[in-house]
Write a structure and sequence with these properties.
homodimer, alpha/beta, 6-stranded parallel β-sheet, 6-stranded mixed β-sheet, 14 helices, 45% helix, elongated, DNA-binding
Chain lengths: 338, 338
DNA sequence: CTGTTAGCGCGTTCAT
DNA sequence: ATGAACGCGCTAACAG
């Protein structure tokens, strides 16, 4: 292993000078800087991360706590991870992956062993047992998702209330006088993820504002049988002018299929709006009008806040909860405005 | 921050004794061991990862290099990541995530900065520029995927030749006298991922063994238009007794849909076998008979080998390339054997 | 502008 | 069975 001492010897300077050239924390004459940089290149020197962390109390690592669940909307996880990793690298940090099934222990380990400088925690439940633990850590923690009580932690999430409003507004504009929300997945409802309620609140408020009815069919398993039962119930309750919202990414396709199976064609006979990524919306046949959750925007903003929190100099963001506005894209499953 | 010195003071022993209690690398009297463990608990002491890495030359971290691609079969990535993370934790290691778009630089960084003890690299191309770099690192590297030349590195992958054979065997048994392989995604073909060829070889060999014809429609974009064109071509070329194989996870659903749209019902009129995860196969309507790639088995085996490579004591595995046998599951899209 | 020096917290050898 | 002491490679305060 080549150390900064080796570099110093080759460059004919002291070891600390090498360190200062790398950190730029004090001015170095152009000439010695060049000698050092040449030596670094010649030896392909790279600083030892452990030694650096020990001396500087900075690991240059972001801990990322994710929950892998079988089946569920786990597909939507990758854009988050990818964006977070990208943002981290852009700030010369790496990402240490920790799974949520370690629970609070994962958090205390990350902080207690000084494995990372900050933590991003995803998939937050409304009453999440990890929150108080996270808030007591000696590293900043940022939540993607909004718990009932964030205990002073910063949160970033999609504005689900706005998503509900967007969908209902669109259906109202398309002339529907009734909206059925075919609900979230059973496990999501059970785990009491906050966004279920927030979405519902937004949708209900919008329906009231438009003076149209809103029914809820929930929960809905994201499979064939679940979708068929839900569609049957949804159609039974309403008439021709019913619009359907599916705020459950993996259920969108089955619901669409169930409608088609019954000879009800979204975009011709009825309107269907899904809450899912654009990729998923475009992949289905016909392409589903969707409200996109913009995982990349959420992640980017989260990392922005996180690095501001890490900047000792910078001023910290005042707003604790930040909601990213979703975007509705009209595709083939909604009726045009009359 | 509480250090091992603090623990030592509270326990009334020397710092080195604390270290030895934790590592178990020398015998400690039951009494002092207890005193130390009590102190550790009382202070909730956790060893500093950087200091430990510096002193022991071991980071307890596995570097994981993954490629996030937009759209593609990126969904299949999560089971790998999840399983790898789980196996790592089971051996008291953590996982540092690095994206493939750093290329070789990511590898040299991981090893050069001593960020990890070993590396798992996924999504290997047939002629992957990173292989020689990886082989020269001072840490063991394990490939998930098989390049043309692994440069002495250990590889684990699905036995794609066997997958091709399994699918064709099944179609032959179902009485089909012709097989059409609706190919891989364009980007996969273009990047020359090795498994395309391996699958093809296995399928061709099996077809010859059964004395039945085999046609290839390739590449196929995993969208509606791509699938429809492919299906049209596939049906045009063959007769009633044609069996279809789709070795392209995201294209399975569109191909199925395209068949149904033409009034051709798999399981009644024709046989369709997909190369995809069981979850994906079960989700579609009707459920697709599939050859599963068993990402969890592959990952588990990969980590098994990796940790054996890390064990200085243990004997290293002799076999360089290890192929995991896939499994065919009959569902609703294949005809019964006559 | 540069060199010297003192830790950072832990693993491990040497001494007892 | 235990303690003292050294060094891992680097940052940063101090001294010039």
């Amino acid at each position: 292993m080549v150390t900064s001492r080796d570099v110093a010897r080759v460059a004919g300077v002291s070891q600390s000078t090498v360190s200062y050239v790398m950190s730029g924390r004090r001015s170095i004459s152009a000439e010695t800087r060049k000698r050092v940089l040449d030596a670094i290149e010649q030896l392909t020197y790279q600083p030892n991360a452990g030694a650096r962390a020990l001396a500087s109390q900075r690991t240059q690592v972001i801990g990322l706590v994710v929950r892998f669940r079988p089946g569920a909307d786990t597909t939507g996880l990758l854009p988050f991870i990818e964006t977070i990793a990208g943002c981290a690298r852009a700030e010369d940090h790496d990402v240490l992956l920790v799974t949520a099934d370690e629970g609070s222990a994962g958090l205390t380990r990350l902080a207690g062993r000084a494995l990372c400088d900050a933590i991003v925690m995803m998939d937050i439940e409304a009453d999440d047992a990890r929150i108080p633990v996270a808030a007591a850590l000696r590293v900043p923690v940022l939540l993607i998702g909004v718990p009932d009580d964030s205990a002073g932690l910063h949160c970033v999430d999609v504005d689900f209330a706005d998503a509900g409003r967007l969908a209902v507004d669109e259906l109202a504009a398309a002339g529907h006088d009734r909206v059925v929300v075919i609900g979230h997945a059973p496990d999501v409802v059970e785990r009491d993820i906050n966004f279920v309620r927030r979405f519902q609140r937004g949708a209900t408020a919008a329906a009231e504002a438009h003076g149209i009815g809103l029914d809820l069919v929930s929960p809905v398993p994201p499979d064939r049988a679940g979708a068929e039962a839900a569609v049957r119930e949804a159609l039974a309750r309403g008439g021709d002018r019913t619009g359907i919202v599916v705020p459950n990414s993996p259920a969108v396709q089955p619901v669409l299929q169930a409608l088609l199976d019954r000879g009800v064609v979204p975009g011709r006979d009825i309107s269907l709006i899904g809450l899912c990524t654009d990729v998923a919306a475009e992949a289905s046949t016909p392409a589903v009008t969707n409200v996109s959750l913009e995982p990349r925007d959420v992640s980017r903003r989260a990392m922005e806040i996180l690095f501001r929190l890490l900047d000792r100099s910078g001023d910290r963001p005042t707003q604790l909860v930040e909601l990213i506005r979703p975007r509705l894209t009209r595709r083939e499953t909604t009726l045009p405005a009359p």
